[in-house]
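Field: COMPLEX_INPUT
Field: COMPONENT_COUNT = two
Field: RESIDUE_TOTAL = 734
Field: MODE = joint
Values follow.
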Amino acid sequence: MKIALCIKQVPGSTSVEIDEKTGVLKRDGVAAKINPFDLPAIECALWLKEKTGGDITAVTMGPPQSEAVIREAFMMGVDHGIMLSDRRFGGADVLATSYTLAQGLRSCGEKFDLIICGKQTTDGDTAQVGAELAEFLGIPHLNNICAVEKAEDGFLYAVSEQPLEKLRLKIKLPCLISVEKNIFEPRLPSYKLKKLTAGRKIKLLTLDDLEDKDPEHYGLNGSPTQVKRIFPPEHNTEHVFWQDGDVDAAGNFFNLLKENKYLQFLR
Amino acid sequence: MTQYHKIYREDLAFLRDIVGEKRFFYGADIGEDYYHDELSGENCPPEVLLKVKSAEEVSRILSYAGARNIPVTPRGQGTGLVGGAVAKFGGILLDLSAMNRILELDRNNLLLTVEPGVLLMEIAAFVEAQNLFYPPDPGEKTATIGGNISTNAGGMRAVKYGVTRDYVRELEAVLPSGEIVHFGGKVAKNSSGYSMKDLLIGSEGTLAVITRATLRLLPLPRAKMSLLVPFSSLTAALAAVPEIVNSSALPTAVEFMTGEVIKYAEEFLGRKFPDRSAPAYLLITLDSMTESELDKIADETCENALSLGALDVFISKSAERNEAIWTARGAFLEAIKASTDEMDECDVVLPRDQVAALVEFRGELEKKYSARIPCFGHAGDGNLHIYLLRDNRSDEDWKNLKKDVFDALYSEADRRGGKVSGEHGIGMAKKPYLAEALEAADLRLQREIKKVFDPGNILNPGKVIIE
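Field: COMPLEX_OUTPUT
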């Protein structure tokens, strides 16, 4: 099975400056890392590769330094890398990002059976790119995937986590899935693989390499979203006090833990 | 043995007067949590529990107790593992956890002055927000700094940064006589007479009650990384430790862990560890002021580990990757505890190059006594945590097993230049082993020191040194 894996470089922490004019994150000079939601997606791809054979291509869009996330994917066992990097891609919203990725996947000369995305990114937080990418590619997609069972006879069998139930689903390949954070415990990058893959070429695609070369469809120009304000998630520290004299402080505490699902796995 | 005075009605009135109604507890009003610490099997109800707020209160209580021969046991959060904060002879339990103010951050001298009840995690959060660093890092983050000083607690970063003693500059303490004393100072060097401050550090509340401490801070290292290093056997992993520690990369911590202990943690947490390919691992942490320097020493360490027989080196740089490893590492003790009905532990420390031999000896004991004796620990500083699990043995069998296994472990450690406790202290649990290990003159001096400070033997009696 040929798997494409969409990954992204995100700021290493939530304290990041925003460009006031464009509403775009200032990424230069900030410690960066692989989007945490992409790690289980990588592990999912590696698991499928171990089961079914084939290879994995990691795809990312970003400035030149985002090559680091492809290198990290190599250190986890991913086989190939594609970078979509061009100043004209900069400042893209969900629509332009999905469109660019779709163009990249169409124009790279490979045909993929499965595209895997993480649930969302920690900087954009939209959780929309996977679904929009599938729409642009005209392939079926599933999201909230919490387990992948097998790939067989042109179908993928997976479990989607819904608010009240889990759905076991069968989907025709080629398709796209967005996976939940708890689907797999991601492996750590290997130093041996780092050395082994240090010289591995990463395919670079610019606007000139894509089928659609109209710059109006990419980057800030191709983004209808108006960013009013971007801000790091607020940290909520809520304190609940029960007085010494409260008759059922323990009961209240128990219920609070239960409501917040801290006790759901209690045996 | 000293005969102590029971607490009578007039004592109650006097003591209640010192701390006030709200911080005074007597008899059945004292919660059972105050009967013990984390040492299993020792339950001693104090007669009175006093939650003190100042050195002056401590002073008045100690003067009164001294005059009436009432034993006084100081206590922080009760997270100790050797019964150090248990009121063995009843009397007064002095709870210092409400003395929990951070008093001063001295930026010019890079010193932090705190009351003894401040928690280790509160100190870390406070100083790190200022880009400063208090290096001692014992596993129990909810312990008080007073407790840490009283046991000279160590923790994982001892390999590079040393232990609590290396970061205490000044102590205010109350002597059993009630006198309030100040040992040490805000100075970086000090050759002025005997170091009384260092005598108090690690004395487990038997010489004086610490009421304030001034701690030395460092600038916070900006870049950190963990390396998880798989080996084909525990022996191979431990054999690599001395060379890794002595490298110019100066690792912050070098921990070892076995597949067995990782399995307990996985079961306990309901979560997979990021790698299960090897029977044994070293977990190395590195820190530096810059990312580029960190990358350089990381590559050096990786190459070094591979040349010493590591199967690979796994790199963890981001918060979520670190979390996956360190959540498991942090859960080892509780996970081992959860895998059995009761356990006892041994916290020996050895010269670094003797660790492998003692771990192997422990393996032989496991076979000899058909018992589970898992271990993990600070390979880099020679401090081992070895756990003996009861596994439903009868009282009699458990008692005998404990005696046989610990006698064997301590004497083997002693033979290899080890010490009874690396960081947990002696308390009441390890007293016989300490008495056994000390030279006669050393033991005599320690008894005399106790007498000089506390002639009436009222302060935390029955701990550390056999009278």
